[in-house]
Design goal:
alpha/beta; 6-stranded parallel sheet; globular
Length: about 220
Amino acid sequence: MTDAAPATPLVLLHGVGQAPMAWEDVVVQLYGSRRLLTPWVPGLRPTEKQVLPLSDGAAALDQQLMLEGMQQVDLCGLSYGAMVATRVAADFPERVRRLVLIAGQVRPPRMLMRAQTTALKLVPASRFADSGVSKERLLQALDAARATDLSDALPRIEARTLVLVGARDKANQPAARALAEGIPQARLRIVQGAGHALNEDAPGELVQILRDFLDVP
């Protein structure tokens, strides 16, 4: 009898306003089940000079996965991290086995992005300091997201995909439906009682969803 093949590594990409530690409650529950990687989303690390265009961020993440020895991964992204994950799965389809997109966007509505930018400008920079997040970098990320259109990328995604959005996250539900309709092997799940950041709002439920989706052949 041969040993079962190890589980595919899981890469978790945080959203704008978060740091990799935002996945802590998820990682603790998944620890030991597979190799886990929670990198800074390329361009959002506070020490980086500027936010990268989404395609460049995807290429940078692909290079990082190669350096980590990860030939193929399961990829889960939240918000801006979901947009980067979408581009990685489209540009490097051989790299991604399963894809989970939480509160992702295809072509962010200008009104929504304008509202988020206005709200962010009113938040003191000191509020982000403890988590190592740069307010200036967040504003740059919102600008990069506003200039993005992933419509052409969706049909090129080969990975089996799960699109998640919180029932209270009304602003991102239209995009979630667009992602599920545009990606060939995708299905949509609305998580009841949850808001935008499932990794913080409902980490236990998210862990169970990930297990169910990633572990089934």
